[in-house]
């Protein structure tokens, strides 16, 4: 099965190194943004099937940073976040995990992220644009 690539206009940021993991988390913490992370692998079909759902959620919640982490590429990050199965979704605030959902349950992840995602602080833009 062909792996689906993120669109260049995607609001989901693919994390390709520990350095970028730290960068995005530090920036989100400084700016007061919530973070949702999708831990995935290319060989886990339920996880791959959640990518379009995650993209849609990212578009629906512009004040939340959405990150995609391939656990095979960033094993240390996955271990640090206690990821044991895929897909795993972690909701974070101020650099700390607040909630975790394991499994490809579209209804549950939509419900959890919708209740977790919150508007950006009033003094900031209503949309996150990290380079």
UniProtKB/TrEMBL annotation:
Q: Which residues form the Thioredoxin domain?
A: 1-119
Q: Which InterPro entries match?
A: Thioredoxin-like_sf, Thioredoxin_domain, Thioredoxin_H-type-like
Q: Indicate the segments annotated as coiled coil, or none if absent.
A: none
Family matches, as Pfam families: Thioredoxin
Highest taxon in the source lineage: Eukaryota
Record-given protein name: Thioredoxin domain-containing protein
What organism is recorded for this protein? Saponaria officinalis (Common soapwort)
């Amino acid at each position: 099965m062909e792996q689906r690539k993120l669109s260049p206009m995607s609001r989901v940021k693919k994390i390709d190194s520990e350095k970028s993991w730290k960068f995005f988390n530090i920036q989100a913490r400084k700016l007061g943004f919530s973070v949702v992370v999708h831990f995935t692998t290319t060989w886990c079909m339920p996880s791959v099937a959640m990518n379009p759902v995650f993209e849609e959620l990212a578009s629906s919640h512009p004040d939340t940073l959405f990150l995609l982490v391939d656990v095979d590429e960033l094993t240390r990050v996955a271990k640090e976040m206690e990821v044991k199965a895929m897909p795993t979704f972690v909701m974070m605030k101020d650099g700390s995990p607040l909630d975790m959902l394991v499994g490809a349950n579209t209804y549950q992840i939509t419900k959890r992220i919708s209740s977790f995602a919150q508007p950006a602080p009033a003094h900031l833009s209503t949309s996150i644009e990290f380079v």
